[in-house]
Design a protein that fits this description.
Layout lengths: L2 E6 L4 E8 L2 E9 L4 H13 L6 E5 L5 H18 L3 E4 L1 H6 L6 E9 L2 E8 L2 E9 L9 E2 L6 H6 L23
Parallel strand pairs: 1-4, 4-5, 6-9
Antiparallel strand pairs: 1-2, 2-3, 6-7, 7-8
């Protein structure tokens, strides 16, 4: 049975788990919206002390650029170095996996007084994730302030290959000047 390293850095929490089937062999997290860089390698080092890894699953967002890049680049590099598969999953879907309602909305802090969100029916996402002001999100019970469930992340199918960025970059290259 495969031992999966699960990583999510799409929120203010850096989360790592090692999951084998229905068993969680390691679970750790560190909170801090700007602490993904130092937290992730430390957590993975702790996880590797518990088990070898056969596969990597990573949350692909939506989330802030830097946090996502840290998690995704680490997951891809780790998998490449060990010649094991890596799979990407929508982080909001991993939050929704914890909720047992028919119709609901999942939101996470997007900073700038906005939220990333998606609507779910029977646990299945309806449409694509988006970013809005909280006052513009309505129509179903809203679940906020939850973090992705790493067991749910591993159990979800899908192979997202690009990060889910919902905003244009803050910094863009300028045109070449003569």
């Amino acid at each position: 049975m495969s031992r999966v390293l699960a990583i999510d850095t799409s929120t203010s929490r850096t989360s790592v788990a090692v999951i084998q089937g229905d068993s969680v062999l390691f679970r750790g997290y560190r909170d801090g919206a700007t602490a993904h860089g130092p937290s992730l390698p430390a957590l993975v080092q702790e996880a590797l002390a518990v088990s070898e890894i056969d596969q990597v699953v990573v949350g692909m967002g939506p989330g802030p650029f830097t946090g996502l890049r840290v998690g995704i680049a680490f997951a891809q590099s780790f998998a490449l170095a060990r010649d094991i598969p890596v799979r990407g999953v929508c982080s909001l879907d991993a939050i929704a996996a914890q909720i047992n309602e028919q119709d609901f909305i999942v939101t996470v802090d997007a900073r700038r007084k906005e939220v990333y969100w998606a609507r779910y029916t029977d646990g299945i996402r309806v449409g694509e994730p988006t970013v809005s002001f909280p006052a513009d999100v309505s129509g179903a019970p809203i679940h906020a302030d939850l973090f992705p469930d790493l067991q749910g992340l591993v159990q979800l199918s899908g192979n997202i290959v690009e990060p889910i960025y919902l905003r244009r970059p803050d910094a863009v290259p300028t045109a070449d000047r003569p």
